[in-house]
Amino acid sequence: MAWRTVHGLWGAAQRAGVITADTPAGRPFAAFGAGSVIGFPTGALYGERSIEIGTGTMIGALVSLSAGMVPGQDLGEAPLLRIGDRCLIGRGSHIVAHYSITIGDDVYTGPYVYITDQNHGYADPEVPIGRQWPSNAAVSIGSGSWLGAGVIVLPGAVIGRNVVVAAGSVVRGVVPSCCVVAGVPARVVREYVTGDGWTRPDPVPGHHG
Q1: 208 is annotated as an active-site residue
Q2: What confidence score (pLDDT) does residue 205 get?
Q3: What is the average pLDDT across 137-162?
Q4: How big is the chain by its Cα radius of gyration, in Å?
Q5: pLDDT attached to residue 203
Q6: Which of 71, 133, 189, 190 is 20 to 30 A from 123 via CA?
């Protein structure tokens, strides 16, 4: 009886705690599309006025969405984080925007994905890294892409459309559309070539990995 009671109450709390456009927690967002939800319990949420969420998007429980360094920071008029329509952001993921992160439509992620547009600075070896001024670089993830569990997307990454990023990969730089990338750092392991279909790319000269 106790088990049924606890689980029943927890299920009711999860249903009641979701964030939508019509709930008090959903109203501060720059945009929160119809049919979109953020699961309960939520992760850290702040800088909502600089975050846009499209329509029909599902953001899992324990996902952190943040814009800026601290809650209440004046970030100007332009949103820093844009999540498109019909996206699915996996449980426990973190999307941390300081400059610009754009996620296209129909982007799915596995759990515990980390996306950020800021790196810590380390230029001065005499100053603790946490006290050095960070650097920012815009991030974009093209529509229709899939990011597997535990993927890390670093500042400056530009991921094309319909890209598969294998679980555990670390993405930096430019990733072309219609390919599969894997590894640390992520490299193209399959690509779609018109007329030939999905093929493996030619090996890099001198590379034997």
Answers
A1: no
A2: 56
A3: 98
A4: 19
A5: 67
A6: 71
> Over the stretch 42-86, which tens digit does the pLDDT of each residue have?
999 999 999 999 999 999 999 999 998 877 777 788 899 999 999
Could you please report the per-residue DSSP string of 80-128?
A: SEEE-TT-EE-TT-EEEESS-EEE-TT-EE-TT-EEESEE-----TTS-
Edge-to-edge strand list for the sheet holding 170-171: 45-46, 64-67, 94-97, 114-116, 152-153, 170-171
Instruction: In whole angstroms, give the CA distance from residue 124 to residue 166.
Output: 35
Closest CA to 118 of 150, 154, 83, 82: 154
The rounded distance, in Å, linking the Cα atoms of 74 and 86 is: 29
C-alpha distances out from residue 166 to 66, 102, 155, 182, 184, Å:
25, 20, 18, 5, 10
Asked whether the whole model's pTM tops 0.85, one would answer: yes
Rounded Cα–Cα distance for residues 33 and 26 (Å): 10
Which residue of the set 7, 98, 120, 207 is catalytic?
A: 120
The neighbouring-strand residues paired with 175 are 159
Give the strand pairing for 174-175 and 158-159: parallel
Q: Which two tokens stand for residue 197?
A: 């279909």
Q: Which two tokens stand for residue 7?
A: 């689980």
How do residues 122-140 score in pLDDT, each as one tens digit?
999 999 998 999 999 999 9
Q: What pLDDT does 20 receive?
A: 96
